[in-house]
Amino acid sequence: MTVDNDRSIVGAPLPRVEGPAKVTGAAKYSADNELPGMLHAAIVGAPVARGRLVQIDTTALAAVEGVVRVLTREDMPTFGAVHAFQAAALDLPMQSDEIHFEGEPVAIVLGTSLQAVEQARPLVRVRCAAQPPILPGHGEREVIAGEEGERDGGSVGEEGGMTWMVWPYGGPVRIGDAAASLETSHTRVGGTWTHPSRHHNPMETSSTIAHWDGDVLTMWDSVQASFVVPPVLADALGIDPGNVTVVSPHTGGGFGAKGWVWPHQVLTAAAARIVGRPVKLHLTRADQYTSTGFQPALTQHLELGADSSGRLTATRHHVSNITGLTETYVEGATEVKDLYACPALDTGQDVERISVGAPTPMRTTNEGCGLWALESAMNELAHELNIDPLELRLRNYADREPTTERPWSSKRLREAYADGARLFGWYDRPRDGRTDGPWRIGTGMATCTMGQVRFPGNARVRLARDGSVRIETDIQDIGTGLQTVLTQIAADELDVPVGDVSVAWGHSDLPSTGPVYASSATVHTGSAVALACRELRKNLSEYSDTPSVTDAIAETDLAEIVGEGKFGLEGNAPIDVGGGDSGYAIRSFGAVFVEVAVDPELGLLRLRRMVGSYSCGRIMNERTARAQMIGSLTWAWGKATMERSELDPATARWLSKNLTGVHVPANADIPADIIVHFVDEVDPHASAIGARGVGEVGATGVDAAIADAVFDAVGVRIRDLPITPKRLLTAIGET
Amino acid sequence: MEFRVNGEIHSEQVSARTSLLDWLREHPGLTGAKKGCAEGACGGACTVLVDGVRMNSCLVLVAQCHGSNITTIEGLADVDGVLHPVQKAFIGEDAFQCGYCTPAQIMSAVASIRERHTSSAEEVQEWMSGNLCHCSAYPQITAAVLAASKKVTG
């Protein structure tokens, strides 16, 4: 396999192929579909966070025009067991009278109009025998076990009647004697860093339409991975997965919330089967807060030891996150252990079970959380030792993956640091802040990294006699530019104009492929398209040795010629992380530099400019890759300065289930002065096309860079996110 | 009730409990306007123009629209399908990702330009901050509005 990085189609800033559909309103999202005879559904959630359901009283609904039926637990079939890495929650609702979290579905209102079910829903009286909820700080803690050095994808196990997601993250890693090394280190820094819980808040709340024709089920669904829908519905409803069709071309944002199948999807399909009519469920914004997961609140204790030159001698990193009473989710923050060369390492994680629903991955999981602590500590260490923060990183640069000694598939972080520093003017920056009117200006930097998550990918490519090329793959469009990138890959591989290439996607009749989450899709499906093109060329060469595929097919009497592309992982793994069994450590890297302004009187914090410089393998489309990074940098600004979902300390309900009380960045928060840069790189091992993951890596490390810029501006260290005006004023007041 | 949607007269009885957003989506099937929250908090994924003024259509009852002239994203391109300059600029500047908020961003941009709130990047940022884009294409949206503003106002 060779990859030529000089050809112009790949990498070119081609405008998005689905652009015209999106600017005219023609792009159809799940809830935009209407079926004849369709009923609307609204889910009634448990009003308390813990207890037992006593009675559901629907007498008040008789007065609401258009209500057809209210389904309760008695109407539901007994669901079969569903499995991790496909289903987000393994404990399906409406199967018992036990309530495990506020908002857990207890009834479904069905009506002939959306207005009817919305009017009826609050009239359903749910009587519960409530118990005090288990609140944060009072839950049982469970230490995450796991084989040291275990790196592969997860599996499923049963223990004590509880089904566990065995996640490849969070198990203890001990190398050397970290405790002893810390004792004897020249300099030690450390502390406790916290994150609040946060919700994904895609602009499109999840929507599902289920339609049965006999035993055949069709789902119009907002998902980030259509391939997991049939197996989960088949397991839950006892049907053949081959009888489930999923239609999902466009997804209105997900950020992890639509990755695995959630109970509302199963309930919609079950409801449609019970009433014998199509059913549409479009979660409200408030529903989304209790239906599709969240990033769990996280506490990290981290300590670094270093010698006088700044070389790390030891790292100790212990992390705890909240999880549900029946669902185990480990936020793998200790996955940052391979960022720097360090001779002694001690990491571990635990989870605390409280009365909430299942957490789930969210941009950016694992390293996005862990780097808040690690990169903050690195910045504190640089300050203690009076070494430039970037120089400190270079002194601890890992030329091989530290915990395994494996070579990197490709790593050009040194160039990313150098280019980013140059674009930002890092070495010319004023030290210890400066003043601009009422504002104190500060700068900060951090390293970014994310382990590569890989899935198998599948695609079919058809070349017709008229020279048109059609790519077929069942993947979603979630705005990453993937369909455009696939077009470029096929045009490049077959040496045809991009205008002759079309993509069919978003329907399960097409070849099943991987997800559009975890910054994985270009690697799995981009590779599959390239491999399909290569197979197509091989098949065509049996008829003609003319180099041009369009000339070649014209010489034959074929109507079309087809190539099937399968991108597989070593050992036929269904998923691998950080390289799996490839023999290489596979990871994306970057460096981020920020300048902020702080008003010390009012506690205001403003972004002035950012530079992100990345080592992410071959960039397939400069324009869509830039958009991915700007999106992630903006997400990180939201995480660092505004986003937080708080549980009511008495009832364990989410306090603000809306975008009024939960703030996310608006246009005015994000200045135009954001520079995104990619180093010129081709990764020969991560994929078949030279690419690695782009996107989520951009939202890692940024919070630590922002916090260090705040320190530079006003001299206070904030270790609790988000950095709110109140926290800033309190910290400034204490100095 | 009689009102115009994208130039077409609709003369019919409407339910008192139906929002303009739900009516647009379910009756004429104009699904370009999206539901992000139905309470005016998501930043207007449902933005349409009512008599030229941008409105969160989830907060307007269709029963309030008698005599109104409503424009949705579906009515923005000309009859031959030639895109409006704002639509072209959104493609040209890559001002969207998932596309869910895009019809609303475009309607808001059309109104901002008409209201003459697009003289600088900072002004565009303020006047476009009523529309959240959680994929966060904000710098590109600002660039698109500025580019379209130049085309529209000359």
Largest interface: A-B, 62 and 60 residues
- Distance, first to last CA of chain B: 39 Å
> Which CATH-level-2 architecture of the largest domain in chain A?
2-Layer Sandwich
- Mean pLDDT across all amino acids of chain B: 95
**Quaternary structure classification:** heterodimer
Helix content of chain B: 25-40%
- What is the CATH C level class of the largest domain in chain B, in words? Alpha Beta
SSE pattern of chain B, N- to C-terminal: EEHEEEHHHH
Structural class designation of chain A: alpha+beta
Strand content of chain A: 25-35%
Name the shape of chain A in a single word. Answer: globular
Low-confidence stretches of chain A: 1-6, 148-165
Alpha carbon gyration radius of chain B: 15 Å
Mean pLDDT of chain A: 95
CATH structural class of the largest domain in chain A: Alpha Beta
- By CATH, the topology of the largest domain in chain B is Ubiquitin-like (UB roll)
Which structural class best describes the helix and strand composition of chain B? Answer: alpha+beta
Q: Give the helix tally of chain B.
A: 5
Distance between the termini of chain A: 60 Å
Order of strands, widest sheet of chain A = 3-5-1-15-12-13-14
The name of the CATH architecture of the largest domain in chain B is: Roll
Textual characterization of the structure:
The complex is a heterodimer of chains A (about 725) and B (about 150). The relative contact order of chain A is 0.14. Chain A has a seven-stranded mixed beta sheet with strand order 3-5-1-15-12-13-14, sandwiched between helices. In chain A, strands 7, 10, 11, 16, 17 and 18 form a six-stranded mixed beta sheet that branches. Chain A folds into three domains: about 20-25 and about 455-570, Aldehyde oxidase/xanthine dehydrogenase, molybdopterin binding domain (Aldehyde Oxidoreductase, domain 4); about 35-130 and about 205-255 and about 260-290, Aldehyde oxidase/xanthine dehydrogenase, a/b hammerhead (Aldehyde Oxidoreductase, domain 3, Alpha-Beta Complex), CATH 3.90.1170; about 360-455 and about 580-735, Aldehyde oxidase/xanthine dehydrogenase, molybdopterin binding domain (Aldehyde Oxidoreductase, domain 4), CATH 3.30.365.10. Chain A is of the alpha+beta class and about 725 residues long. Chain A has 15 helices and 29 strands. Helices cover about 25% and strands about 25% of the residues of chain A. Chain B has about 150 residues and is an alpha+beta fold. In chain B, strands 2-1-5-3-4 form a five-stranded mixed beta sheet, covered by helices on one side. Chain B is globular. The mean pLDDT of chain B is about 95.
